[in-house]
User: Fold this.
Amino acid sequence: MKVFKFGGASVKDAAAVCNVGTILQAQQSGSSYILVVVSAMGKTTNALEQVFEKAFHQQDFTAPLSNLQQYHYQIIRELFPEQHPVQQQVENLFQQLQAYLSTIDSSDLYDKQYDQVVSYGELLASVILNEYLTHVQVPSTWLDCRPIIRTDPIWREAKVDWNLTQNNIQNSVKPLLQKTHVVTQGFLGGTFDEFTTTLGREGSDYTAAIFAYCLPAQSVTIWKDVAGLLNADPKLFSDTVLYQEISFQETIEMAYYGASVIHPKTIKPLAISHIPLYVKSFLHPEAPGTVIHDCRHDKIAPAFIVKQQQCLISFQEKDFAFINESNLSTIFAALANYRFKINLMQNSAISFSVCTDSDATRLPLFMQSLQEQFNIHYNTDLTLFTIKNYDEASITHLTKDKIILLEQRSRTTFQFVSKTGITVQP
Ligand code: ASP
Ligand code: MG
Assistant:
């Protein structure tokens, strides 16, 4: 048993869905079936966020909703003959969505209602992909993952109940995979009282890992629009290198520093159960891509990781007292309280600096809570650069012409916060 995950870009139009069909057809080897996890098509999740935002604020959402409908109908028209039953299924989903949107209540929980709306992207994509596979004679069954992946009700960031989920997968999913491929939704879960939850944006990779861990699967393959795991984001860097093989440990650390290749929660369940993760290009399925697994490697190419929209905050005690454990713990408690993740920190005799993601609403509240005790200075619109497995050449290359506010280096990692950002390659 294997798990394949197809992201939004791999099902963004009819041609892309056909390509997924071709990839699965090439896999057919009789006895071994694949659990297919699919994300919402193209940029559907962002579009649903907009629809929801309008609905929640009692604004007119007909235009963005109708765009989304047309987008899905167009894909169906190109993939299926007229009168194919998929049409009715997709219409039903849009009707359910519309019915839910009309009940949205601005005085009720934002995040809970968000999950109920945004989940339609994956529901639509999985129905369409499953019908398409069946249409091209790839044996396949649609699975609603919400009663299977059981979570708590932490809306938009739900935590998985591993015991219940594993039981459900063993009892209801494993038997299905004896007979056909199974197509299910990424990113979704469900509570005991049957509300939909989501696992955090870009969470479909994590879904693939959850299924793989619970089956257990022999491997996971994430199909992407890049050749595999690269040492930098090709949108930001022109000369990227592909890792052919890399360890779980190394990948987890890259995700920690902000590499956006794989959802950070994905690695742990796979590493624990020693399930290899392949990252491959859906445009060149024959190419080997990257394998992430238990391995030791010597020196690998430096990885360049960029976190934008950073904020650097420094604290000084008002009476010039030294920074000590007691005032540090006050600062840490406030950081936790306002949900700021520390991306980098540094202390000197009388000041403590921390680099975090900027958040225009929480930042002033956080600083207000500490301003009686500390003099606080801050800078926003900064970029945090990390070079993992650096060498001197990579540091020279990346720091060239940049205004650096703070830097730090360990044996393996070089990081700096800069006023100078980085521009997307044309
Ligand atoms: N569709 C969701 C998102 O865009 C989940 C995913 O793509 O992994 O965040
Ligand atoms: Mg996506």
About this structure: The chain has two domains: 2-217, 303-418. The mean pLDDT is 95. The domain at 2-217 is CATH 3.40.1160.10 (Carbamate kinase). The longest strand covers residues 303-317.
